[in-house]
Protein 1
Amino acid sequence: MEWDFGWGKKRQKLEGLVGVSETPTHIAAVYTITRDKESVVKAYFVAEVLDLAVRQQRLSQFVTENNLQGADCSYVLTSGNYTLSLVDTPPVAKEETAHAIRWLLKDSVNYPIEEAIIDCFDVPFLRAKDNAQMVYAIATQKGLIPKIQALMEPSGLNLKYMDIPELALRNIIRRHPEESKGCAFITLETGSGKLVLCREGNLCITRSFDLKMSELGKNPSEDGATLESLALEIQRSFDYINSVFRQSIPNVIVLAPSLVDRTIISESLKGALGSTVFSLKAAECLSFEKPMSDEEEARCLLAIGGSMRIEETT
């Protein structure tokens, strides 16, 4: 989720939000202004950079060139830097909830739970069998913070939030025409993927999966097994929300911009699941002063989602 640390020196308040995301090979930053639920990307950059010092330099250059000193920033965590667990809301007083959830997660992390930063967000439906409220609990290690600060502070951005990819993806798909009735939004990387089932601006359920999507098309005889596994992961998500929460989400799939060829995936899912499948272009959800290429959309996707964060009361 997002954690408001209020890091950074006090500077002149700028409109909008900068989203920053990283992979082992790339860094991306997107500056977006949102007004009345309309978002416009004013500037962005994405670069293949391995060295921290060069990443600092490129981010600082982006900030300087676009006069973004002091702008609020949302950093989107990479998948290996947090855990996301679906748990029952503890039966304790509200002021004790955080401590109780921390105790529930102690076996879900590979470091002492005292070193964890914990947050959570509600599943928007009650569990059908007992009307219990469930929450997604997020844990990340405190030791990660100095590493993020080392990247961000030299740039002059005000590191205000930490996001997780699932909620960054929710920020994007909530603007898609199909989302109001409900849909599965899927992002596919070379070796993994994420699915978020969303409706009316809410993240209903999410799951991650490991699939060798980069191998598609290289050996057609093996494509069938990979595509069958993907269809099974998606069907399990639809079945889960129906059986556990008695909620029906339309059989609609939206494929996020990706470095993986979406054509073969789309046709396979239509056949295997009978789904209506859309291949998302980011311009369907927000506007761009400077158009992005397909590759840039894929590499900037989480930074876009981070930059589209809307202030909410929880």
Protein 2
Amino acid sequence: MREMAVRRAITWLAVLAAALASTAASAGDAPGHFDGMWRTTVSCAAARDALGYSYRFASTVKGSVLHGVHGVVGQGGSLEIDGPIQADGSAHLYAKGRTGSKEFVPGRDTPRGTEFGYEIDAQFEAAAGTGTRVEGRPCTLQFEKQ
């Protein structure tokens, strides 16, 4: 009798574990609440002898991962921003790109098309977000959900 109860308990636990695994897999495939199109604005203040600049471009968040591109990837004046957004809205993003005109590059001796990269700490809410460049020249980011 006791052996039968143990088998039923094991069977019940196996069914429960399978159901939980299925639910977890479905939740991982579900879109995040930040998913959608976002307008991204990058603004960098004048630094040393470089002019300041600001530009806007579209970014997409899919599966709680942001991807945005300004310009043509791999060409001078381009920028890509990528990274995951956590459930609480915090994000550690990475920007990489290639320099544009020398007037906008501190030091002005960096040739157009030189690769660069930097980290961004950001915080997203339901329809807006802000970010700050972690190192290098001071830059801020604004995100607006479309």
Protein 3
Amino acid sequence: MVDDTYEHQGQLLWVSMRSGSAALMLNKAPEPIEPSGARYFLYTENLVGLRERLIRDGWEPAEIVDGTPGPKQEMAICDPDRHFLTIAQIGD
């Protein structure tokens, strides 16, 4: 069941669907996605700590930014298989 959407200038950009405890969020990509890549949206309870650990382990996550109209804190990273991950902070 669709439980939330976001439109900008009359264009649907984001939708959230839920069934029980399962949630699926879909976002329109700002540019074409390469066929080999995929995009995922994940949540963590400690975004700052996760980013610090990724950096220590040699990853290059983006800065934490305001994801409004979605989560207030999120960051992006691309894994070695070219999966684009957006990771957001759970709660405030």
